[in-house]
Amino acid sequence: MSKAEWVYLLVAFAFWWRLDRLGKQLEAVSHLVRQEMAELVGNEERARELRDEWKQDQDEQKKAIRRMWIFMAVVIGASAFAWWWFTVSQH
């Protein structure tokens, strides 16, 4: 790959990462607004449910991210091993 292609790939990754962060921030604001509205209306039980729901969503996202990193580590490790094996067998 040329330097320009690497730059495009890096820019695309940075753009994707920023959009992902923006989505998480919007989701957090949405949960906060719903919780505040429930508290303002006086429905403490619903506000508590929304807090619990938010905590469960956060826990599930952490688990999903952990699984993704483990999967990526296995894929990259297997690819590196296959590349090494192929280059060693060529000599």
Structure description:
The radius of gyration is 22 Å and the shape is elongated. The relative contact order is 0.05. It has one domain (3-90). The chain has 91 residues and is mostly helical. Helix content is 95%, strand content 0%. Helix 1 (3-41) packs antiparallel against helix 2.
Number of individual domains = 1
Taking Cα atoms only, what radius of gyration do you get, to the nearest Å?
Answer: 22 Å
- Roughly what fraction of the amino acids lie in strands? under 5%
Task: Kindly name the structural category.
Answer: mainly alpha
Cα(first) to Cα(last) distance is 25 Å
Uncertain residue ranges: none
Average pLDDT, all residues = 92
Helix content: over 70%
Describe the main β-sheet briefly.
none
| Elements, N to C (H/E) | HH
The overall strand count is: 0
Shape assignment: elongated
Count every helix, treating DSSP H or I runs of 4 or more residues as helices: 2
Helices and strands in order, then pairings?
Blueprint: H1 3-41, H2 44-90
